[in-house]
């Protein structure tokens, strides 16, 4: 029987393992850096007749401002969005999501200004949230149609 004399290049093996770790790590971690870490919020629009009286009473202060507010009432979290002084347009909700920034819960509300006849001057939404967010950011855009 003949003995096989196999020699390993230790440096080559170490470099190969490091390259493999970097490649696999790149496929796992780099996409996570660019992915949106927000979670969508489920909500239902509250019809005008069903809006709680307490919410209607506090809305009087904010109807002339472009705002998004969160209200906790009877164990439910409501989001109130007003269009402000823009009487030419109404608003529609595009998306609501939450994310954690600096250990604080941030809600992002995206609205679209649309034709006044096809949208609303203010919107009240009932959400599936259990607690109020620490901060709410409202971003708006005007639909070009």
Structural features, described:
- The structure is a single chain.
- The protein is built from two helices and eight strands.
- It has 145 residues and is of the alpha+beta class.
- It has a four-stranded mixed β-sheet with strand order 1-5-6-8, with no helix packed on it. Strands 2-7-4-3 form a four-stranded antiparallel β-sheet, with helices on one face.
Fold blueprint:
Blueprint (H helix, E strand, L loop, with lengths): L9 H25 L4 E2 L2 E3 L7 H7 L6 E8 L2 E8 L5 E13 L2 E12 L6 E6 L7 E8 L3
Parallel strand pairs: 6-8
Antiparallel strand pairs: 1-5, 2-7, 3-4, 4-7, 5-6
Low-confidence stretches: none
Q: What spatial form do the alpha-carbon principal axes imply? A: elongated
Strand line-up in the sheet with most strands = 1-5-6-8
Largest sheet: 4 strands, mixed
Q: Could you give the count of β-strands?
A: 8
What is the helix tally?
A: 2
- Helix- and strand-based class? alpha+beta
Rg over C-alpha atoms, rounded to the nearest angstrom: 26 Å
Q: How helical, in percent, are the residues?
A: 10-25%
Give the N-terminus to C-terminus distance in angstroms.
85 Å
Q: How would you state the average pLDDT, rounded?
A: 83
Elements, N to C (H/E): HEEHEEEEEE
What share of the residues does DSSP label as strand, in percent? 35-45%
Looking at the chains present, what oligomeric state does this protein adopt? single chain
């Amino acid at each position: 029987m003949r003995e096989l004399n196999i020699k390993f290049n230790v440096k080559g093996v170490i470099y190969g393992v490091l390259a493999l770790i970097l490649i696999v790590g790149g496929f796992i971690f780099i996409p996570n850096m660019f992915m949106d870490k927000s979670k969508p919020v489920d909500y239902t629009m509250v019809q005008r007749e069903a809006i709680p009286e307490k919410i209607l009473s506090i809305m009087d202060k904010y109807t002339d401002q472009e705002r998004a507010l969160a209200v906790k009432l009877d164990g439910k979290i409501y989001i109130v969005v007003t269009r402000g002084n823009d009487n030419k347009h109404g608003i529609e909700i595009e998306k609501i999501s939450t994310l954690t920034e600096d250990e604080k819960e941030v809600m992002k509300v995206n609205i679209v200004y649309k034709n006044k006849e096809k949208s609303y001057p203010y919107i009240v939404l009932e959400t599936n949230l259990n607690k109020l967010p620490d901060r709410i950011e409202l971003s708006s855009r005007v639909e070009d149609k």
